[in-house]
């Protein structure tokens, strides 16, 4: 999922350099992926598939759509492929989160949830590292899509039989549900998760582009995305123990504030240090917020967590759609990323304040 969903970010500077995209169309292409993510999240609410079938389908569609990006130069085809990848990635996130977190809770090993989400960071490291190597070799963006898509296909085939394992029978979880939660609490969770989607996606989409504008050397600006992925992979493992004293809600609030600082770091710290600070702060919190938010949903909704998780994921997707479009428009209006970054940081701070109100 880390490759299939986030490969566009490290490939984007290569596509811009080759003249295959400009920044406004890059924003549209990113938003197409997030529109697909919204469709996938909404369809997951009522989808009547076994979790293993939905996960396998999602992984296969993500892998093939990533690989196919290498074999066309038509913008409408790119839009269709990135939309399909978005639908598939939402299915994977919702079904893996609902089924695996429930199984871990039944086994009394909820703290291992961080291991699940660390995989996204590992995929981001792989995509960023591959693009860094390919840039050093002066390879094309098509070659990058081919390598990343081929790796995704290989990983999907490797996982195919492993996903067949069925959970052992266990006592049912408490029969709580999203419908039993106060509406104000549902609104806090859904809107805060949507604000997170809007805020994180601006650096997650444009950080390598900002780095390229700030730093001339590809070997240096190309470091931004692997650093982002490494922080994402490590942070989930480190954040899980914090959930005991703070609760997943407390982890979510703290991570939102750290991310807000990371979003504005390029404005506060000049050059490569500011870019790396953004990569570390945003990278180390975006998967943590995903983990903490979805664990909080499972805690509150119990056996009906899939509905609440899908609703939060849909709000997240709406934020993701709006983020790149708003950033592209603000860049065209102002000539830089400053207004977009300030607005994103303000949204994160507001969501942290809203979450601090306990139900």
How would you sum up this structure, described in words?
The protein is mainly α. The protein is built from 14 helices and no strands. It has helices spanning about 1-5, 10-15, 25-45, 50-70, 75-105, 115-135, 140-160, 185-215, 220, 225-240, 245-270, 270-300, 305-335, 340-355. Helix 8 crosses helix 13 and helix 11 runs antiparallel to helix 12. The longest helix has about 30 residues, at about 75-105. The radius of gyration is 19 Å and the shape is globular. It starts with a helix and ends with a helix. The relative contact order is 0.16. Mean pLDDT is about 85; it is low at about 170-175.
What share of the residues does DSSP label as strand, in percent?
under 5%
Q: How many helical elements?
A: 14
Counting DSSP E segments of at least 2 residues, the number of strands comes to 0
- The computed structural class is mainly alpha
Helix fraction by DSSP (H/I, runs of at least 4): over 70%
**Roughly how many Å is the radius of gyration?**
19 Å
User: What characteristic shape results from the CA principal axes?
Assistant: globular
Termini gap = 33 Å
| Poorly predicted tracts of residues | 168-176
- If you average the pLDDT, what whole number results? 83
Main beta sheet: none
- Name the helix and strand elements from N-terminus to C-terminus, one letter apiece: HHHHHHHHHHHHHH
């Amino acid at each position: 999922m880390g490759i299939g969903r986030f490969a566009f970010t490290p490939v984007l500077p290569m596509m811009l350099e080759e003249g295959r995209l400009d920044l406004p169309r890059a924003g549209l292409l990113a938003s197409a992926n997030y529109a697909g993510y919204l469709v996938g999240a909404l369809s997951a609410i009522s989808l009547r598939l076994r979790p293993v079938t939905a996960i396998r389908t999602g992984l296969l569609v993500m892998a093939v759509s990533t690989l196919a990006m290498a074999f066309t130069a038509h913008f409408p085809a790119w839009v269709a492929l990135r939309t399909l990848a978005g639908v598939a990635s939402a299915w994977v996130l919702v079904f893996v989160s609902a089924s695996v977190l429930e199984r871990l809770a039944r086994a009394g090993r909820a703290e291992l949830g961080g291991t699940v989400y660390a995989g996204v960071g590992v995929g981001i490291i792989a995509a960023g590292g591959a693009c860094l190597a390919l840039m050093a070799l002066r390879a094309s963006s098509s070659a990058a899509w081919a390598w990343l898509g081929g790796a995704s296909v290989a990983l999907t085939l490797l996982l195919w039989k492993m996903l067949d394992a069925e959970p052992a029978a266990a006592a049912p979880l408490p029969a709580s549900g999203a419908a039993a939660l106060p509406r104000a609490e549902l609104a806090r969770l859904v809107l805060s998760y949507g604000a997170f989607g809007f805020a994180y996606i601006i650096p997650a989409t444009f950080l390598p582009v900002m780095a390229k504008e700030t730093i001339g050397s590809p070997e240096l600006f190309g470091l931004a995305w692997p650093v982002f992925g490494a922080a994402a992979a490590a942070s989930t493992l480190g954040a899980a123990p914090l959930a005991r004293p703070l609760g997943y809600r407390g982890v979510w609030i703290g991570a939102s504030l750290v991310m807000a600082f990371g979003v504005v770091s390029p404005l506060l710290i000049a050059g490569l240090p500011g870019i790396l600070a953004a990569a570390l702060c945003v990278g180390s919190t975006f998967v943590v917020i995903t983990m903490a938010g979805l664990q909080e949903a499972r805690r509150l909704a119990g056996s009906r967590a899939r509905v609440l998780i899908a609703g939060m994921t849909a709000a997240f997707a709406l934020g993701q759609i709006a983020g790149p479009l708003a950033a592209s428009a603000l860049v065209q209006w102002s000539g830089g990323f400053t207004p977009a970054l300030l607005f994103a940081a303000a949204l994160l701070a507001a969501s942290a304040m809203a979450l601090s109100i306990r139900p």
